[in-house]
Amino acid sequence: MLRRRTDIVTLLVSGFGERSGGGIFAVSGRGVEQVDSLSSTGLAVARGRVARLVRSATEHYGSELLLYDANGVDRYVRLDDVVDPHDVVWDGTHYVVASTTANSLFWLSAQGEVVRRWQATGDGDAWHLNSLVLADGRLYAAAFGRFDHHRDWIEHKHDGRGIVFDVESGRDVLTGLDCPHHPRRLDGSWLVCNSAQHELLELTDDGRVQRRLELRSWTRGLATAGGTFFVGESSTRDRWAATAGASACALRRASCSRASRARRACRRA
Fold first, then answer.
1. Among 163, 100, 166, residue whose Cα is nearest residue 133
2. How far apart are CA 172 and CA 141, in angstroms?
């Protein structure tokens, strides 16, 4: 999430980690400021308020929604059924939340009450539904693949089973991905974090790869501003030590070169 304070562009990042905690981080040319330490997985802005998902210490329990106005926390909602949340967007009427372990998407009212649920086939974390984006009036979601059982995807991280799909129609718009996160539309193209390959992809409407931008670790989290991409780099459970931290990398779109990298005191973002 990007915000401008006077003439400074500030990147707001939510992060979490089993041992390192997490919180909200403000990243700008002045450095990295940790705003707080509540382990979080998603931010959305709507109607002058910021919605924030607070993650449980264990992925098998529910989560919490905090709604902020200009004066601070305006509303707190406990979401018992929204297990292991990964993202939240505002669709113009509702907050939509991806609940990964519940294999579901939840629609919440402006006050945070659950009003609708869509559940993918399979049990538990079968698809690994994770990231959402509203583009051209359509809601799209990223998933590691259409699997039948809890975490079947673990054995298929590198064989192109990942997808981005239109939620209402069920139609795949991007395929052949490896653990995708945070699809975005930009100038008629798709951007998506191809996480298992540690890269950011730029693709055409019909899914052809135009560019691959290599990064140093699991890519998750994506924002754009002008000619710059901001990409999150997270540690993973199986490849990095528990002390490894997450970072945000700024990439120049035109040259594909790295502009800067900021470290954060959490494992995943």
1. 166
2. 10
